[in-house]
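Subject: Sanity check before I submit

Could someone independently write out the structure tokens for this chain? I want to compare against mine line by line before I put it in a report. The sequence has 304 residues.
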Amino acid sequence: MILDRTRNTATYRAILELSSICKDYPVKALCRLGCVTRAAYYKWLHRKLGQNEETNQKLAALAESIHKEHPDMGYRRIRDKIEHDHGLHANDKRILRICRKKRLHSVIKGRHNCCTRPAVDPYYTAENVLNRDFHADKYNQKWVTDVTEFKYFPEYGTVKKVYLSAILDLCDRRPVAYVIGDSNNNQLVFQTFDKALEANPGAHPLFHSDRGFQYTNKLFRAKIEQAGMTQSMSRVAHCLDNGPMEGFWGILKREMYYRRRFTSRQELVESIEEYIRYYTYDRPQRHLGIRTPSEYHEKLVGAA
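---
Independent answer below. Compare away.
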């Protein structure tokens, strides 16, 4: 009855709770203390809920359950999750009111410096062919990629890092391939690229990255040409040229990494892998029609 707006609701709830906890608090005395009549209390207690109120209570219970499992979700994502998993339709404002009433708050997005400096002596640089056109009608039409780092603390005063290299499809936003390594080197990026080709044989997408040293490497350029792809690169200090990839890093770190302190490599790697599975198979996205990347990809494959 959390969302009930009946007059004296707070008083009625207090009477109900106290009388159920201890027999020494009779309803009659509690009603007198709360300046309400017994008749009014019992009328409230045995009232029939309207359809709107029943729906609100159901939405509130689902919102609490979702927030408990995913405390970093905001009200929009909670609304999408409710529709995706339970088929209940509600507008954003309704869920926002419920979340405020239940005091369900998401984590505020932190500032993130995403710009990559150009390689000191790049072997090859490509033009920005993508040109911030992040729409794709078909899967394997446009891929974006990047590398990001994570820190863990095996003992006091010691900091170690792992690096995640990933490729994202701009059509269904699925992670095409990813590799986790201890060094941010050419091998990490090459393995990710080879893994993506193995999972998508015959794919010839536009391949977009920043101007990091791995992507300007002449050996990587040879891989791009051999795969029959067109290479595209962000301009120097223009993070938004690779916006979807930077957005993916932000989502991953905000929901899985920030506010946690990892003390072992295994714990960190397992958390990254588990989150990528969750993102791919269990995290509906509004711009995908309240579908997960996996569901949207299957829809496209079925329509092909």
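---
OP: Matches mine. For the report I'm noting this point. The chain is about 45% helix and 10% strand.
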